[in-house]
Write a structure and sequence with these properties.
alpha/beta; 24 strands; four-stranded mixed sheet; UDP-n-acetylglucosamine1-carboxyvinyl-transferase, Chain; binds uridine-diphosphate-N-acetylglucosamine
Amino acid sequence: MDSILVTGNGPLNGQIPIAGAKNACLTLMPATLLSEEPLTLTNAPRLSDIKTMTALLQSLGAEVSSLQDGQVLAMSSHDLTSHTADYEIVRKMRASNLVLGPLLARFGEAVVSLPGGCAIGARPMDLHVEGLEALGAEIELEDGYLHAKAPGGLKGAVHEMRFASVGATENIVMAATLAKGTTVLKNAAREPEIVDLVECLRKMGAQISGEGTSTIEIQGVDRLHGATHQVVTDRIELGTYMLAPAICGGEVELLGGRMRLVESFAEKLDAAGISVTETTEGLKVARKNGRVRAVDVVTEPFPGFPTDLQAQMMALMCTAEGTSVLEERIFENRFMHAPELVRMGANIEVHGGTATVTGVEQLKGAPVMATDLRASVSLILAGLAAEGETTVSRVYHLDRGYEHVVRKLEGVGAKIERIKGQ
Ligand code: UD1
C-alpha cells in the first residue's frame, strides 16, 4: 500500500487550483438516471469515488464515458438494464444510495443495498426512506436491501425532515422532479452541492425553487431531457488547502475559490489570525505575524462550520496559542485523527463528541495512519508543520477525495512525496 512522506520545511507560497466538488459530482451523476437523454458533466474531479459511482451506474446499464483526462463525464441512461444497486459497490461508498430516488422516480422500482457501518458513525437511511414514503413509495428492508416500489408512480407531498440530511434532501428532490403534482420539502439541507444539483436538474427541465433555503418546492414534470453542467468548486478541498499556508505560514491563492462557499470557515480562520481575501481568480490566504490563536469550533449543517473540515481545523489548532474546543455535532466517532495527531506531539483530549486541543509550539514528525478521508489529509497538514519526517500510511482514503495532492502541495513549495507500496 502506498504512503505519503512529508517533511516540514517552512512557509508555502504560490497558487493551488481547486477541483470540482466530489460531493456535488456524486449526486449529479445519479441524476442521469432520471432521463433517457444524455447528461454531460464538466469540471469533474479525478477521484476513486467518482470511479465507484461510474461502476455503479454502469452496473445499472448506463453508459459513462470519461473524457479529457476524466474532467468530462458523458453519461446516458437510455437503455438501463437493472434497478438494483449491489452491496459489493454500495459498501465501498455510502453515496451509492443516491441512485435510490432517481431509479424509483423513473421506473417505479429500486432495490438498493443498505451501506452498512461506516468508520465515522452508524449513518442510517431512515430520513431518505421517510421522505420517499411521503411521496407514496412503499419501502421494505429484506436481506440488507431496501426494496422500494411506487406502483402508481410517485405523488407530490408536503414533507418535513427531522434533520437536514444532505443525502436525503438530494434523493427526495431528485425523486420529486418526476412525481405527479407539487412537493414541498421542509427543513431541507442548504449545502452548495444541493444548489448545484438543482441548477443541473433545472437545465434538464425540472421545475424547482427555494434551493439554498430550508424549503424546496418541486413541481413534478412528465419527463426530463439532456443537459450539460459544470460541477461547482469543491469547498472542502478549498478549505483544506486554505489551511496549508495557515499552518506553515506564507501566502497561497486558491484558484476557483469563492468566499460564499466557505464563509463560516473563513470567519474562524480570521479569528485565529489568518487573512482570507477574495481575488478575481480565487481566495488568497496568508498568516498574519506570530502564532495562530486558538478558536472554538462547532460543526453544523451548512451554512455552519462543515464537519468535513473539522479534522483539518484540528491540525491547525494543534500549534495554536491557547486551548480550543472542537465539538462534532454531525457524526459520532469522528475524532479518529486525534490519537494520530497526539503521536506527533499534539495535546488533545477527547470526551464523547468534544475534543479539547491545547496548542504546542512545535509538532514532531512521526509514522501515522489515515483512518478516513478527511483524517488522512489532516495528518498531511500536520506533517507540513512538523519538525522532521511524517509518513502517512493507508493513503487510499486520500485518493477518494483529493486529486493530485502531492503535485498541488509541491507546487507551493511543500516537501512531499508518494512512496509506492510493495
Ligand atoms: C454528506 C457528504 C459528507 C458530509 C455530510 C455532512 C456526500 C457524498 N457526502 O453525507 O461528506 O460529511 O453530508 O455534511 O455528499 N442521518 C440519519 N438518517 C439518514 C441520513 C443521515 O440519521 O437517513 C444522519 C447521519 O448518520 C449523520 C447525519 O445525519 O449523522 C448527517 O448525514 P447526511 O447529511 O445525510 O450526510 P451524507 O449525505 O451521508
